[in-house]
């Protein structure tokens, strides 16, 4: 098998061992004589998967019992709406920190259902190249929550230290860096993320919500859009995306076997260090627009001296089976997405290609 | 491989040939060197799948160009809300025909966002055993739509002839009988259905919406909940449930190869005739509560003379690897779900078991 080097911004690479396991048991799941694609979501065999996915996540991230872990459909974009629908209302405000296109979308949806505020934005000439400093945040101590995007997939920036929001809980879209390393969950009231970058395949979104915030959730919105509905029924109010949750469980098992999130962080730091190392070794050739202290460990964004060279770079990448390197159309250039399950060996091969390319064309 | 006979009410059986194809290409999709679980939803290879799923569905059902086919996440239950959120509003009403628990849920969600009416209900003593007759429907000619549940999964009833609603478009939840046979789509303004019974795995919901109804959809609701958003971006506004859509495409190909929906209907009629044949041959033993002209071709519901015998029936079923026969808790007894991809041979084996069981215990 000739596996591609998958640098897709999402959906993204999964561990080969997980794919092999899925393949080997695809026709007969847990001796049921049925595929995991055919089992009832009300069966004991599936419930074991569902609960194991939750408890593995709880264990790996050290999530205390006062947080519920939900598995929902509809994508992270549905959470842009569900969060304010559940938590805002007359006389209730929330603070949004705008660090890129995804925060902008989240804010736009919040405005449609409530009265959110912008607590800070790092937009300059339509671009976002950094994370705001603590002192730039104009926080409302009465806000129900402060919304941040922990990693900005398109612009390649990432919060390295989460903001201090006092008593106001943080709500974070962690779609593109969930599980990249251990972190202290206590300041967070709610975390959400589409699985398709750092956790599993497209089709399931994880929502982690703290009891006190759940208690404040509205009960006059559609039943299916209430966090309370899904928390009460352990994400089995209606048919969950069974297969995607099954893969999430296998991925979490894989992380645990490898050494947990401490190991994961080490791997991710090594991969990012290699790519940014090449960029910094050829500062005239590879121009990274992002402020150094805001660089994303997941998505490295850079430009070459000309669009012609960028196209040549992407053209040459094909021969190496590097996939997904073209930058987002709003930014241009190159984006290297090196999520959790992109092997170090793929990153190494890309780094060498970058070095050779710079030497040949500088 | 010892395959179970899968009579699950959903998620349900899939064609073995489809599962084998999924298995064979799980590590390398279309020569990409990536799993279908890892490919970008913006890639050409995935778009070919997405578009093929749509055009196969269009071809099999004869769906004209003035209907959009959408693939959404969140389950059919999300459509209970999305439909009225998009289509109702001040001064706009809709008629709901209540034929079971799923119509009740749809109506409940509609009441939370608008002012729907009940056009008819067949509830008697908390049970639903029939589909209403045309003359029982109290239709409002000003209604924006008439909502029906085409097949009542729990109570085992099904609309054999769709109601005449004049100029008012029908909106149908076809979650449990979509694709069971060809039908004339013209009276329908919108059709929705979770894939996990008659179309594919859990994780994707199909919505088919006609241009004129789409034009009436609201634009002051959350962006992600607008049908217009998904129609405009061909269900690629955000990351769709890639894998589930891929399976839907394979299932549709399988139906086409087998002989299309005319063949599918023949198979389904033969399976239902076999099961109801046994029931009618032992009328003292198998008591079917449903009116004969309302019997579902998908879910046959019946009771035995005592709960003790029902338990014995279910116990004995295990040795034959019959799965999913227990009736819904609100109805009790036995439910045989014989959706599209339950093989005739499974139904034949179950029918023989029913005959033997009746003879042994009558
Ligand atoms: C940070 C972030 N949030 C949200 C989304 C949207 O996720 P989805 O496509 O699941 O709606 C993305 C997708 O790339 C993302 O990167
Ligand atoms: C007729 C009908 N409608 C809706 C649903 C709910 O579907 P979901 O679980 O995808 O929300 C079901 C599930 O069994 C059903 O049978």
From TrEMBL, chains A, B:
Modified residues (N6-(pyridoxal phosphate)lysine): 197
GO cellular component: cytoplasm
Keyword set includes Flavoprotein: no
Catalytic activity as recorded in UniProt: O-phospho-L-serine + 2-oxoglutarate = 3-phosphooxypyruvate + L-glutamate; 4-(phosphooxy)-L-threonine + 2-oxoglutarate = (R)-3-hydroxy-2-oxo-4-phosphooxybutanoate + L-glutamate
Domain Aminotransferase class V: 6-350
Residues annotated for pyridoxal 5'-phosphate binding in this entry: 76-77, 102, 153, 173, 196, 238-239
Family matches, as InterPro entries: Aminotrans_V_dom, Aminotrans_V_PyrdxlP_BS, Pser_aminoTfrase, PyrdxlP-dep_Trfase, PyrdxlP-dep_Trfase_major, PyrdxlP-dep_Trfase_small
First-tier enzyme category under EC: transferase
Binding site for L-glutamate: 42
MF (Gene Ontology): O-phospho-L-serine:2-oxoglutarate aminotransferase activity; pyridoxal phosphate binding
Location(s) in or outside the cell: Cytoplasm
Biological pathway: Cofactor biosynthesis; pyridoxine 5'-phosphate biosynthesis; pyridoxine 5'-phosphate from D-erythrose 4-phosphate: step 3/5; Amino-acid biosynthesis; L-serine biosynthesis; L-serine from 3-phospho-D-glycerate: step 2/3
Cofactor: pyridoxal 5'-phosphate
Assigned keywords, A-Z: Amino-acid biosynthesis, Aminotransferase, Cytoplasm, Pyridoxal phosphate, Pyridoxine biosynthesis, Serine biosynthesis, Transferase
PROSITE patterns for the chain: AA_TRANSFER_CLASS_5
EC number: 2.6.1.52
Entry's Gene Ontology BP terms: L-serine biosynthetic process; pyridoxine biosynthetic process
Cofactor binding, per record: Binds 1 pyridoxal phosphate per subunit.
Pfam families the UniProt entry points to: Aminotran_5
NCBIfam families linked: PRK05355.1 (NF003764), serC_1 (TIGR01364)
Stated role: Catalyzes the reversible conversion of 3-phosphohydroxypyruvate to phosphoserine and of 3-hydroxy-2-oxo-4-phosphonooxybutanoate to phosphohydroxythreonine.
Subunit text: Homodimer.
Family: Belongs to the class-V pyridoxal-phosphate-dependent aminotransferase family. SerC subfamily.
Full protein name: Phosphoserine aminotransferase
């Amino acid at each position: 098998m000739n596996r591609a080097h998958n640098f897709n911004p999402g959906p993204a690479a999964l561990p080969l061992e997980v794919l092999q396991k899925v393949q080997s048991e695809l026709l007969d799941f847990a001796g049921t004589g049925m595929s995991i694609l055919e089992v009832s979501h009300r069966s004991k065999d599936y419930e074991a998967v569902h609960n194991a996915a939750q408890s593995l996540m709880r264990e790996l991230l050290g999530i205390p019992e006062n947080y519920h872990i939900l598995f929902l459909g509809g994508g992270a974009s549905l959470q842009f709406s569900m969060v304010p629908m559940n938590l805002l209302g007359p006389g209730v405000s929330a603070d949004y920190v705008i660090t890129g296109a995804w925060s902008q979308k989240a804010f736009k949806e919040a405005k449609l259902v409530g009265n959110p505020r912008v607590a800070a934005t790092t937009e300059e000439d339509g671009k976002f190249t950094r994370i705001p400093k603590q002192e730039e945040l104009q926080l409302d101590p009465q806000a129900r929550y402060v919304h941040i995007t922990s990693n900005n997939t398109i612009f390649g920036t990432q919060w390295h230290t989460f903001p201090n929001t006092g008593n106001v809980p943080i709500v974070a879209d962690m779609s593109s860096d969930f599980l990249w390393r251990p972190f202290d969950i206590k300041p967070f009231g709610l975390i959400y993320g589409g699985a398709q970058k750092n956790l599993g395949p497209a089709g399931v979104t994880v929502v982690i919500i703290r009891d006190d915030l759940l208690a404040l959730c509205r009960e006059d919105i559609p039943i299916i859009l209430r966090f309370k509905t899904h928390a009460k029924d352990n994400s089995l109010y209606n048919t969950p995306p069974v297969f995607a949750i099954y893969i999430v469980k296998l991925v979490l098992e894989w992380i645990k076997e490898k050494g947990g999130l401490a190991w994961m962080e080490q791997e991710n730091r090594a991969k990012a260090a290699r790519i940014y190392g090449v960029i910094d070794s050829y500062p005239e050739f590879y121009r990274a627009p992002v402020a150094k202290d805001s660089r994303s460990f997941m998505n490295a964004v850079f430009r070459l001296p000309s669009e012609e060279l960028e196209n040549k770079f992407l053209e040459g990448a094909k021969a190496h089976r590097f996939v997904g390197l073209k930058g987002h159309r709003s930014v241009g250039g190159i984006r290297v997405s090196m999520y959790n399950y992109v092997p170090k060996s793929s990153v190494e091969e890309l780094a060498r290609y970058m070095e050779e390319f710079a030497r040949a064309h500088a």
